[in-house]
Amino acid sequence: MALPWPFRALIWFCTVVSVSFAHKNVLFMLADDGGFEMGAYRNRIVQTPYLDALAKQSLIFNNAYASVSSCSPSRASILTGMPEHQNGMYGLHNGVHNFDALGRVRSISTILGEAGSRPTSETTMALPWPFRALIWFCTVVSVSFAHKNVLFMLADDGGFEMGAYRNRIVQTPYLDALAKQSLIFNNAYASVSSCSPSRASILTGMPEHQNGMYGLHNGVHNFDALGRVRSISTILGEAGVRTGLIGKKHVGPGEVFKFDYERTEEQFSVNQVGRNITNIKLFVREFLRDAKDNPFFLMVSFHDPHRCGHITPQYGSFCERWGSGEEGMGLIPDWHPIYYVWDELILPYYT
């Protein structure tokens, strides 16, 4: 699916941080009331060569904001991953102000300490809120990554047709249950609403003008990512993580997007690996059995929401008849379809 660009960047950034965290330490430097007075932000007067060198290897935020431009609230937000109205630090901590965070709040130093790390104090600045959230999110993911695996599920052309996005007709109880424990994006966009470019962006952490995947990978389109690009499956594989992809792949070249275990349209019919949930279940079991106790990254890429009537009209516009048990349609044992009346479906206002 064409996931929103901020989501793709977040997935990539956090996963890379997570992989490396088990092998490295964290030095977090913070400047009190620091601003844009550095070469990295095109200031030609102030000389900051070391910061500029660091910036060349880093993620730079040009458009961001702080939820409050005050010292203690910003520091507390950085260290707890919460804005001040959640952590309780509404004002300055010192002197007559005398503000404190809520006692139930857990800071990153506490969490890291419990995980066996040895954080030290003495670092903080009124950083933009999105940056604080990103630092917090990635650090928490990093701490837990050594003990957990990654299952990444992707829906080809999936949209807002689920209860989590207030659709009262379409029934998605499992997605809704997952959403209650997850981060939901209400306002986001994709840099390009096309299959292969979005997939390449997810797997490389780069927009299409950097990874080279400007169009569709298949047939006459024949687009590939640049050979020098390194995908998340390559990086994780080199770190000793077993990687797998089940379902639609639709990116290339193979040496850039290589997985240890692949069950995709390159080996099977895309319907068999992307729509047949019984096959998908069996492939997942096979992957997990082979992974044993090793850490793994498994991407399951469903093809179901994608149209198919232009290629196989006998199966219906969205292959809704394929595997339904009708005569000549075959049967998917684990699939129990729900049929909706089309004029009852709630569609986004812009369609």
UniProtKB/TrEMBL annotation:
Transmembrane segments: none annotated. Pfam families: Sulfatase (PF00884). Residues 1-22 form the signal peptide. One of its GO terms (biological process) is glycosaminoglycan catabolic process. Keywords: Glycoprotein, Hydrolase, Signal. Its cofactor is Ca(2+). The keyword Glycoprotein applies. One of its GO terms (molecular function) is N-sulfoglucosamine sulfohydrolase activity. Residues 24-116, 148-319 form the Sulfatase N-terminal domain. It comes from the Eukaryota. Belongs to the sulfatase family. This is Heparan n-sulfatase. The gene is 6043262.
